[in-house]
Design a protein that fits this description.
Number of helices: 20
Strand content: 15-25%
Structural class: alpha/beta
Radius of gyration: 32 Å
Number of strands: 18
């Protein structure tokens, strides 16, 4: 055999060997090069919300195999990552995939407070999931029959469970949609918020479990993905109800760290392409693609993701309306409160009814005390405490406050000792200030100051300005009842403390005005602005 023949035989053996090793149709030279490069492959570290992490892990496995890129998926709740980013912590990741773009905005907002800079930028939207109402099949059918509106929900026709918006982006998106659904009517939206806050749970999973275990028609605000994940093997599967007032979807973004290298940026681009090319894997984990299209799902309607830019303000509003508060209710029981204002109804009767409604509207995280004032109630002092501070989360204290409001008619006597009462109330609240709560005085009166022994208006206003601390405010929310109220004076008193003044000019206005004053206690004077 010549040397040339020997070389040909050896070459043939090598070729056959490679074909047997790699398979017919493969490119052995490229495969060898890829294998060699995979020993020092690009590495990408991704922090992902647990809801999307499973889908990303499956897609990352394909990228590892096909593109020789090492993708490390680390799970962390989106709200936790947002807080750490906002505090300026170095999280040592190349990309972040929260369950909603709301969390990037939240991180920016927190960074503005802390003085830090946000070090991530949204690169692409990789998935989405509609905001839905979760219920049992029987509840879903009943809702379709009743055609329940959000006003009906606010009135308590069906119980609604809301996961805490501080940790559930779906809740924030739903609140934003509801605000739009009520025509930006802040009073109506406030009523909805108070209703939802009374049934708030800590997390989305808690909401779904509450729906599953409830013995009355109950729904939870959540996402299509959460319903699918929960119902997979659950004893009581839940279904998604697509309410027309919440026809929106959350966008799931992929944000990259600002300091990633060109190689890492390229690797992330490969990962993003793989996600877009894998709608079936997203669907297996309950997600839709970035456009809102369902893949191999029963729901074929495209629900377009909405930017969270429109949601961030409503989260701040929610925080204001539901903030823990410490409220001193100061009630005028001077003789004019016995005036008949319609039929046989006295002003004190209308106020008592309204006060009961207002106390019932306040959340459990409210501490409340009640003073009454007229003139000469305790020597020269025009006021007296009839209910000391306690939490409305204590059923006994809430009931005592309600019973006291119902019994005010027996306490009506004397003139209006307004100015001394306001000053003493402010001093008391300043001395007992609690920094973790909204501290306020709810002043209710139907007249003008009739006590000329004590402090006069100029001195009162000067003292209020001195006592006012913008960093640790105690505000006066003043409510005037009837045409004889000196509303200008109430406005001056309120403004001196950073508060606000209301006027119930007609008897029928009393309940509505008091409810507004109580439920908007934490955001005045800027509610709904």
């Amino acid at each position: 055999m010549t040397a040339l023949n020997v070389l040909l035989v050896v070459a043939a053996i090598v070729i056959v060997s490679k074909l047997l090793t790699h398979g017919v149709g493969e490119q052995p030279v490229g495969a060898v090069a890829a294998a060699e490069s995979c020993e020092a492959r690009d590495s990408v570290r991704v922090v992902a919300d647990p809801k999307i992490a499973g889908a990303l892990e499956h897609i990352a496995a394909k990228v590892r195999e096909n593109d020789c890129i090492s993708v490390d998926i680390v799970e962390e709740d989106s709200d936790h990552t947002a807080v750490r980013l906002g505090a300026g912590q170095d999280l040592e990741f190349d990309a972040w995939v929260p369950d909603s773009d709301l969390w990037l905005l939240r991180a920016e907002e927190l960074a503005n407070v802390s003085g830090e800079e946000i070090t991530v930028t949204t690169r692409d939207v990789v998935a989405s999931t509609p905001i839905v109402l979760a219920g049992t099949e029987s509840t879903a059918m009943a809702l379709e029959t009743l055609e329940v509106t959000w006003q009906g929900i606010s009135d308590g026709i069906v119980s609604v469970v809301l996961p805490d918006p501080a940790g559930a982006a779906a809740s924030v998106a739903a609140l934003s949609a509801l605000q739009h659904a009520v025509g930006d009517d802040f009073t109506a939206f406030t009523a909805l918020v108070m209703r939802l806050h009374s049934n708030m749970v800590d997390a989305s999973q808690d909401g779904l479990e509450a729906v599953s275990e409830s013995d009355r028609p109950t729904i939870a605000i959540t996402t299509e993905q959460m319903v699918r994940a929960y119902s997979d093997g659950a004893p009581t599967p839940l279904v998604s109800v697509y309410h027309p007032d919440v026809s929106t979807a959350s966008a799931v973004p992929l944000a990259t760290a600002d300091n990633v290298s060109d190689d890492t940026s390229h690797a992330l681009g490969v990962l993003i392409e793989a996600i877009h090319a894998s709608p079936e894997l997203l669907a297996e984990h309950g997600f839709r693609d970035a456009s809102g299209q369902a893949h191999h799902m029963a729901e074929n309607e495209v629900i377009v993701p909405v930017s969270a830019e429109s949601h961030i303000d409503v989260l701040d509003t929610w925080g204001q309306l539901t903030a823990p508060s410490r409220m001193l209710s100061v009630i005028d029981v001077s003789g004019s409160m016995n005036d008949v204002v319609g039929g046989n109804t006295r002003r004190i009767d209308l106020f008592s009814e309204a006060a009961v409604l207002a106390v019932n509207a306040l959340p459990d995280n409210t501490d409340m005390a009640t003073w009454i004032f007229s003139s000469g109630r305790d020597g020269d002092k025009p006021w007296e405490e009839i209910v000391s501070f306690g939490s409305l989360g204590d059923p006994q204290h809430r009931q005592l406050t309600i019973d006291t409001a119902r019994d005010l008619e027996h306490r009506v006597v004397g003139g209006t000792g307004l100015y001394d009462t306001v000053l003493d109330a402010m001093r008391f609240m300043r001395e007992s200030y609690e920094p973790d709560k909204v501290n306020l005085i709810l002043l209710n009166t139907d007249g003008v100051n009739e006590d000329h022994i004590g402090v006069e208006l100029p001195e009162l206003l000067d003292e209020l300005h001195v006592l006012h601390d913008p960093e640790n405010p105690v505000v006066v929310i003043a409510v005037g009842y009837g045409p004889d109220t000196d509303q200008q004076v109430l406005t001056q008193i309120a403004e001196a403390t950073g508060g606000a003044a209301y006027h119930a000019l007609h008897p029928t206005d009393i309940a509505q005005v008091l409810m507004e004053a109580v439920t908007q206690r934490a955001c005045r004077p800027d509610c709904g602005g």
